[in-house]
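Re: export button greyed out
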Amino acid sequence: MITGVVLGVALVASLLVSVSIGQFHAAPNEVLGSLWNGLMHGVDPGRSQVDGVLWSVRFPRAALAALIGAALAVAGAVMQGVFANPLAEPSIIGVNAGASVGAAIVFVFGFSQTASWSLPLAAFIGAVGTAFAVWGLSRVGGTASVLTLILAGIAVNAVAVAATSFLIFMGDRSSREQVVFWQLGSLAGARWADVGLTAAVFACGFVACLAIRRRIDVLALGDAAASSTGVAVERLRFGALVLVSVLTAAAVAFAGVIAFVGLIVPHALRLTVGPSHRHLVPLSALGGAVLLSVADIAARTVVPFADLPIGIFTAVVGGPLFLVMLRRTLSGYRLGR
Amino acid sequence: MAALEVTGATVEVGGTAILDDADLRLNRGEVTIVIGPNGAGKSTLLAVAAGERRAQAGEVKIDGVALGDLSVAELAKRRAVMPQDTTVAFPFTVREVVAMGRTVWNDRPGAADAVAMEALETIGLAAFADRAITTLSGGETQLVAFARVIAQITPVGDSSVVLLDEPTAAMDVAHAEATLRTARLLASQGAAVGIVLHDLDAAAAYADRLVLMHQGCVRRTGTVGDVCVEALLSEVYGSPIEVYDHAGAIRVAPRRRFEPA
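Workaround output, generated via the alternate export path:
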């Protein structure tokens, strides 16, 4: 509860900072005034320079950052629950690698010039398609165990990475650059339409994750015990993986690959509120939104006049943080055994 | 009618029958203990009875209804299973783990916790309620799993079936005796209890009926007196076993004769 309030306040604060700072500085009261005017009297970017910058650039970007962070973190929490492993991440089932293939196809063959929707669409299809391929290949004798899922994931990831590499090799210089930068993740150029679509997918996925979160807890007992407790393990795992792949795919579709959010946020929260997904899933949404909002602030401000790829920051912060938590977790587990 | 009945169960893995035409009857109000050497098929038989493992041949009925006709949830309301592997992946509190046994019942908020605490009190582990399960010893973790099983079949009655796979394997003597006493208590409340056990002496003391397995087959089924026969046990285990009377109770122990050095 306290954690939820803290994260909520942190989210509002980081969003406010995020929309205030930049080459054009807007004071917080100007931001709130513009937000109020926009909500009350309709959005008119032409009303003033402040309104123009905020409503057409910063607000959609901040909103998209928060949504994508929330989607990635919720997907991570569910993924770890489904695999009964705190080190699981959505990329295990190939979503990121698959999205990269989709994006690379669009860049290399130049579809993005003809249709602006082709990039997010291809990334989304690539991500979900790869996840289903992993699921299908992991089924041995009618059931997919955690082990076969991980092994199938490794194989499919390798093939997808090879496909992306081949596409990069085939492409010309500008398309190569586009693929590489896309894989680093960026929120630049976020539009309201992107925000709306991401919000819709996130809302549906999030509600479904909330509905299954109690049963995900039971998977910690192991498949056989969970099943004898009354959980339809196979169906639950399939449904959860569909949700994970759709949430992750929606996130990467507009912003490219953003690493570590799905790993760090649930893991950090587990240390503060415990492992129950009852709290973990909703709090991960808040925590992910905060993390990506802050990372986006850093991406825009660390180097003046440059918009750095946001994936760099989540990885730079996430990598060491992950190591610290890993050591704490492992020593905690060892104490008990 | 038996509460749970397995007839003619056969399980083959890679051409080897690990369970061969095996029967198991669990009667209401009775404790049935399955004994036999390693690899005899005891756990496989229990897994078939639990519906966790499908047999290539044979059928399993619970209250006369074929297991396949029941949903996972319906089945979970009638029978609870304690697995050999009782490890939990995340550091849930003991109370949370036991409350997971209530998943299928859709309790009102708080009610699941109340049942969990009751079960923990039954096995004498209430003081551990807020400990992280990952900080417990192996035997304590087994006790928590037993509490989870009790929580799952609460309220215990004529239609309850309890299956325990080597529940005392990692427990000290006090915990092991308490667990088996609690299993008898569940039976006295009407439950049909099936246990796989390695401790022959404990099996002789706590069972109403014994099932002796050997090489995938049921070798003998009956009362403790029927099954605890020196020649039979010694042959099946391939090691000399003594059966003797001690103050009116049947005791079973390996024969240990050490030559003076």
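The CA atoms of residues 30 and 187 of chain B lie 5 Å apart. The button fix ships in the next patch.
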